[in-house]
Amino acid sequence: MAAIAIVIVSHSKQLALGVRELAAQMVQGQVPIAVAAGIEDRENPLGTDPIQVYEAIASVFSDDGVLVLMDLGSALLSAEMAIEFLPEAQQEKVYLCEAPLVEGAIAAVVAAAAGRDIQQVLAEARGALLAKATQLGVVSSPLSVVSPITTNIESPTPEIRLIVSNRLGLHARPAAQFVATAARFQSQILVRNLTRNTDLVRGDSINQVTTLGVRQGHELLITATGSDADEALTALQGLFANNFGEDNVALNSPPAFHHEVTPTTHGELSGIAASPGVAIAPVVHYQPTHIAITQYHVDNPDVEWQRLQTAINTARQEIQAVFSQASLQIGDTEAAIFDAQLLFLEDPVLLSAAHQRILDNHINAEAAWQAVVDEVATSYRALEDSYLQERVDDVVDVGQRVLRLLAGNAAANLHLEEPAILVATDLTPSDTAGLDPTKVLGICTTSGSATSHSAIIARTLGIPAVLGVDAQVLHLADGTLMALDGESGRAWVEPESDILDLLAAKQSAWQTAQQEARATAHQPAITRDGRQVSVFANIGSINDVQVAVASGAEGVGLLRTEFLYLDRTSAPTEEEQLLVYQAIAQVLDNRPLIIRTLDVGGDKPLPYLRVGLREANPFLGWRGIRFCLDHPELFKTQLRAILRASVGHQIKIMLPMIATVTEVRAAKVILGEVQAELNQAGISFDAAMKVGIMVEVPSAVAIADRLAAEVDFFSIGTNDLSQYVMASDRTNPRVANLVDALHPAVLRMVQQTVQAAHRAGISVGLCGELAADTLATPILLGLGLDELSVNPQSIPGVKQAIARLSIVESEAIAASALQQDSALDVRELISTSVTPPGNTNS
Asked: CA-to-CA distance for 501 and 387, rounded, in angstroms?
């Protein structure tokens, strides 16, 4: 029998105790019921306390599930906060339910006492008002709320019902995953929010899915009609089961800023604390060009439709460029904001509406596009949910980008001569992602909120921001001195000397803390017992290397050269490549630079090379070294450029996707031919340049001892290795949860590789995403890796993690991890074994 527990959260202790008494009588005390209600204040006892809620949940916690029912207002916030205090493994067992307190509690305890599981108890609580509503004639019957959808009697439409557990529901990023998954299938996917009793909408429309207003705990009905309906529903179910890849911690939520209560001073403006830090600088106004639209009649609507498609395609390329740059600057998680923007441009409902307007009304592309964008924005603004209302920013951002391209205007770039505080009405996510934190010292806007995408990006970039200040700030002359404190949400125009002194002291303390963090990042990563581990950067463009060095990279462990070959109509020349490799090596100033030869083919085809048959399994196909060996001239051109760039620099070559000794030898033969040609032509190069391989195919691990005799170093690519070891495509939501580099099977592969390399006297690094996961650092140190190569923004955190560990304790953790049964077991082991940050004495 399921042992479900109930927690009642209320502002009033008497109310909560009364509800508990009523519910307990219904089931003769069979179901554990805890109460968290009221606050310890005789004058005003009404309120809720997160700690009290946490203690109530902990007191009745059950692995079968805990249902939390709340009354209004802050009760929900207290409950959400309380969950964060629980261990991660317990958090997913606690369900916040929006059902009415009295009826919900009674229905829930009756269902729990009957042995129902947590989802059934949730459903009973949510349906608690149906009987009353039916009796009062508010609804005709329970079926009118959630009637099943079928195409006809004989052939029922496959459907699933799922509860959303994400903390913020289907916000931009999970909604983008949902739509991208739905769009992969031939079947038509329809989805309804049962909790809000919405209409069915198309699952491949980002706007329709987002405007369902799906929050945590809502139940969705998803139907699929078509040849691959079952597969589509299974894939969508996988997303929910995997919690859309989120850990259910509030996504980069604004810090709990504390407000210093001081009397208002002359020139002080009060606003929303959106990004911490102090800025003192002259103001510069930023006014993005708003495109004014004039509607006019067109004789040839097909030409207008073509114009719109061209602008949308260009906008897509621009957003992809913003996404790439943002990934580097603010990390993949936050950059995923722009994934939703890309899906907006591919939304079939939106495109169809724009096309229809042009054809039916014979109007210009600008007018049709503006009309459909306005409709979507209006539907977002109409939502009750404030978080989803803020997605209007993204809609407007994309809409204006396409209009700018239709109007033939160049992108507005903000180039500041001197550091300044940016004053604006608002900033779009694209505007914010493009800011240079060394020039934009602070942001002050008259609108916006702490949970907007722009605020999230500002926090990640480390730019102090105060939003929502009085509009008088827009009338300030450029150059006016301003000070702002992003922690208290206040700004000062021409601040008086005492305010400046206070803020300057606060700014100095903040800058000192930042400098210490940076200084640590620029020091070697040495464990507590004296072992040094190299921390390198993975980069994918010439711009990335600047950020890598500034972040404390001791070299580049992986230069992905694909950026030179993609988005063009012919392969890059030897001279083009030479200039790029030399420029990157120059910035590194004799730090090591490992250049991975071209890794395309199969899943990353080059449009200017005819690859022949479409591959059923591109990840198992013609890619990496296989592709290069079949295109020796293409391969030779790259090798010549790398060799020529090696003079006076510490450059190494790395071969991707090696599966056999034969491949390494064949590549070395071609390298030898290129070296002979350069010698003959009298062109100098580093004759002692080291050659290594990526270890990312299980066969390479199995014959690592043979491969080690052929090369100078190994670099383990855990992203591909994980999916090959687990036989799971990491891009397939149905099996992606299996692809975890912390699975003991993958860790054993890493161990085998390291042991083989060290026996042969060669070094071994790791350049997969696992290297950036500080949870994994003790295991990687314990397995004996010589270097870790990570995205530039992860370098400081990884170095700090290494400094907190000793090799002895790391080896013990690694040995234990190899004996676990699952990745989850490994994660639990690490979380209980590792010394907490800041405690380096144990």
From this structure: 37
